[in-house]
């Protein structure tokens, strides 16, 4: 189980109402406004916050809650339910399985791929990286460095090469050597949105035409962008069949509440979170540990 206590310190401050208010405080009408403002301030989103508060009112009445302590426990259970019901595993199989990474430039996509490759390699699953962001030379160079750090092979093309062909070549390379997993980078140029989305759709089609099978399309989002990231996510989800979210920079963000908005508004699970700069700082998302950490008072 992930321990989010230290990494969520900034977001937890947004939930300070639950730590600073007397636990024996009796409930009155003002508490609902305060809770609503607390959730919105943590970037849960207005619509989702209103929905949570209405449900909380109903639950507190049902359970006969009379103090902030009792209300907090009901809310914690409610938030855990909100984040449950999703399959958070990363699908494998496919000789090789292909995991495509999509997302806007600057969200930490290439770094995330490097960390995930390191995790896979340490768990005895060989990996081939595909440098599919061929329009940004720095992206290939960065991915090469991560490949060296993780101890995995990388397949790359010439600058400006067709990204689909690079990823296709990577699947053939992996298949020929019995490597079970290809992790592929893609471009993230939102300023050419139409071309980018057409390119991503093509990559998804082509990546599955060779020996590989596209098992995951993971959208990388920067948690510090908050609600603005939802707009980006919606655009990518329109172009490709996103199977999961990787939320980066959670350790430096005060907007961790965006996780609730992502899963409520997009219906896409957060599967992994980035909580630091080290190789080990990409961890599976654990809804229970995440919610508990938001309400810790002695962390």
When the domains are counted, the total is 2
Order of helices and strands: HHHHHEHEHEHEHEHEHEEH
- CA-based shape: elongated
| Sheet of most strands | 8 strands, mixed
Strand order of the largest sheet: 3-2-4-1-5-6-7-8
Structure description:
With 299 residues, this protein is an alpha/beta fold. It has two domains: 74 residues, Up-down Bundle (Four Helix Bundle (Hemerythrin (Met), subunit A)); 146 residues, P-loop containing nucleotide triphosphate hydrolases (Rossmann fold). It is built from twelve helices and eight strands. An eight-stranded mixed sheet has the order 3-2-4-1-5-6-7-8, with helices on both faces. β7 and β8 form a beta hairpin. α4 crosses α5, α6 packs parallel to α7 and α8 packs parallel to α9. It starts with 8 loop residues before the first helix and ends in a 5-residue tail after the last helix. The relative contact order is 0.19. The model has no long low-confidence stretch (mean pLDDT 85).
